[in-house]
Protein 1
Amino acid sequence: MTSVIIASSLILTVAVLVLLFRIQTLVSVLKGSHDTVGTSNKVNGALMIIVPLALLLAVVWYHPYAAKEYHLPVASMHGVWTDNLFWTTLGIVVAMFLITNIALFYCAFAYQYDPNRKASYYHDNPKVEIAWTIAPAIIMTVLVIMGYLVWHDTVEAPYDKDAEVIEIMGKQFAWQVRYPGKDGALGKYDFRLIDDAKGNEFGINFEDNNANDDFLARELRIPKGKPVRLKIRARDVLHSVYMPHFRVKMDAVPGMPTEFVFTPTKTTEEMRTETGNAKFNYELACTEICGKGHFAMKYIIIVEEQEDYKKWYASQKTFLEEKPEFKGKGMNSLKKKNLANQEKEQKEKASKQQASL
Ligand SMILES: [Cu+2]
């Protein structure tokens, strides 16, 4: 309440001062003693230096606090490259911003109205024009090439020959993860085989032998120092795989599988020491507003040393060990079942027709 009173009294004081100033100006105009430039010229000139300087100091003062809050530590190989690219670009942009704005405000101050000074006529200068066209062009070209190189190494990644393949599927409203098992190859899937009631949420086709040792996991476990190829898909609407510490973000699109290759560089334990937070966990969050249960699409990621990861991997039960009733079931058995159902329906129809005759 007091803050409201203080704020409104401040506003009122400013309004009264503005009104008094207006009245004084009007009176001087009526008297014929009004000076069109007056002291406001000098005041505005000084403000051109004071205001930007104050704002600049405020930014410098605030930045370390803001930085702590918003700059997440990085835990992937390409994350370091993209961060470097980001900071380089930001550095250049900030430098340009400072140079141009200092020049702008300084000129407004230095060349304020002076009755003893006359503006000179200056048409153009081709040399200066060429210089300020070429300089930004060179800077832009360097930035674009740097960006392209990072994009190439990250997205068209050539280093993924021995990558760990893991499938991640978004659905309303959870993430699910499938590992290819010992053979390293994920089994085929088909959306028509999805059967939530019986437990085949991925729609895995068990007629494909590669699916025999596939297993599901409760969390996304990945090894440190090895490329991970995330095969991303969505079952219903758009979701988005966002793993901020690894600088990974890729949409999960229904009907259009996407993928991302990245190499984690710090285990969960190492990150706990680095952040000083014993409860730290890497997190995957959906960044697509995918429905009213969107908030539930958080998933824990565990990064381990390669030996620990291998041990965990070997100890997992395959999907078929958990649900042996799915063995050998796939598209062909589904088609047969559908055909049998059709025949049954036709027979029933025919017998009904006969009965009605
Ligand atoms: Cu989602």
Protein 2
Amino acid sequence: MNMQLTDKVILVTGANRGIGRALVEEALKRGAKKIYAGTRTSLTHPDPRVVPLMLDVTDAAQVEKAVGAVGHLDILINNAGIALYDDLGDREMIERHLAVNFFGPYSLIKAFLPSLTESRGAIVNVLSVTALASLPLIASYSISKAAAFSLTQAFRAYLAGRGVNVHAVLTGPTDTDMTKGFEIPKSSPQLVAGGIFDGVERGEEDIFPDPMSASMAESWRSGAVKAMERQNAAFVA
Ligand SMILES: NC(=O)c1ccc[n+]([C@@H]2O[C@H](COP(=O)([O-])OP(=O)(O)OC[C@H]3O[C@@H](n4cnc5c(N)ncnc54)[C@H](OP(=O)(O)O)[C@@H]3O)[C@@H](O)[C@H]2O)c1
């Protein structure tokens, strides 16, 4: 299902910098009615359509409070994330990544599901190409994104009958604090934010928002794994 951003109410987590901040600006340009900017520190924005929201995605009390503050919601964007170098030597590193990158989106989806069902809205999970192929330099991060991709596919199947679109964003390297010091070609966060909303507006299940990730889009969409996702989803249709 296609969805235009005009007049929509959107919540972006991790909205103070990087891709999250670019998503807020892009949503404003596309005519969103209100954008809740979830952050862990206080935020001000010159546009009155941007409403700051204190939201650490690992804090259950803050998530609950956010649900009360937001009310009506059309699009939930799970963007907040962490990426730390590791080599799987420390179990705690895996748990830290899962807490933010997997259980964060899980908690927010559960919490906002009544609003999103009511609005027949959309969930956008900002994942990574490392969900498809591990980058062993950031192995725990890759694990958390692969798990969040599986979560996305399962919610997509469960919610299809309730009119809620569930998008996976398979982002390639982007020039933010997260990739500082990693000398590889990167896309700008502005380009990625535009690619994400283009995908949402076109109703794409899996969004490849930048040139690097887009090079995989066609083979992914016509491939055996995507076909199996559809077959598996039919069991809960
Ligand atoms: N950059 C890339 O190359 C790339 C590639 C693929 C996917 N992604 C994904 O894109 C998303 C955004 O990444 P980015 O590149 O913009 O990273 P970034 O510049 O490091 O920003 C990360 C954002 O997440 C927030 N955050 C971290 N932990 C949080 C928590 N517990 N609760 C709420 N917010 C939290 C940060 O808030 P604070 O400022 O408070 O720390 C910050 O706003 C992430 O999910 C990332 O995995 C990025």
